[in-house]
Design brief:
With 235 residues, the chain is an all-alpha fold. The chain contains 9 helices and no strands. The protein has one domain. The termini are far apart.
């Protein structure tokens, strides 16, 4: 009976995360994303604690933060170099095209890279996927299984924003993929990439025992990609 309840909680947590992601993308105005997402991430951690998962099991133990920061910081130069290189390369530059990033004022770009991305996107998503969901799954499942399930949910989380972005893009979006199969393939490709990224972030979380490591890495990827979009547009 206890195992059935645990499995049900895991299923409800996963479904709730995806439902929240869809509502966030379609119903919550962008200017409210930072406070709403931070509240959602905090509630997810509180839910995990309420279900009996320890702070260490959720990756939020104070004693592990320093180790997480150190490991996460080591990833930043590698991530930065790889992303900027791809943004400047002629064969991959087009994948960085983002109208919001290109048209942003310098003040908006600073807000996006220093506030919204690290605190309104990366931190809440890490608390939700590498914190609460991974912590709940690790109670009854092997680490490999828990990583795969939480990472797949992370990939599916990106379906709604991916569809919206592809509709807006004239380089890699719907205009470049007129058939339904081609469009589905593009969305599936993004899900596959973000699922893989979720696995890498989960590995960092388990390696460091703290969500601080994947938070820093996640923030670096998104922030440098945002800046890369601006560089790609100039190129």
């Amino acid at each position: 009976m206890a195992l059935r309840r645990t499995t049900l909680i895991e299923a409800l947590a996963g479904a709730g995360a995806l439902a929240y992601g869809l509502a966030l993308d379609r119903r919550v105005p962008r200017r409210f994303h930072v406070p709403v997402n931070l509240a959602a991430g905090s509630l997810a951690v509180a839910f995990g604690i309420g279900e009996g998962v320890s702070a260490g099991g959720l990756g939020v133990a104070r004693s592990d933060i320093r180790r997480g920061v150190r490991i996460g910081a080591l990833c930043v130069p590698v991530i930065g170099g790889a992303v900027i290189g791809a943004a400047l390369h002629p064969h991959t530059r087009g994948y960085f095209v983002d109208r919001d990033a290109v048209e942003a004022t310098p003040a908006t770009a600073r807000f996006e890279t220093l506030v919204r991305i690290p605190f309104g996107t990366a931190l809440p998503e890490e608390l939700l996927f590498r914190g609460a969901l991974l912590g709940l799954l690790l109670r009854t499942r092997r680490p490999r299984h828990a990583v795969i399930v939480s990472s797949l949910l992370f990939g599916l989380w990106h379906v709604a924003p991916t569809v919206r972005k592809l509709k807006e893009s004239h380089v890699t979006g719907w205009a470049a993929a007129p058939s339904a199969a081609a469009r589905a393939g593009r969305v599936a490709g993004v899900v596959a990439v973000t699922t893989g990224a979720g696995m890498a972030l989960a590995w960092l979380r388990l390696r460091s025992r703290s969500v601080a490591a994947p938070w820093i890495a996640h923030s670096a990827v998104n922030a440098v990609s945002y800046l890369g979009a601006r560089l790609a547009a100039r190129g």
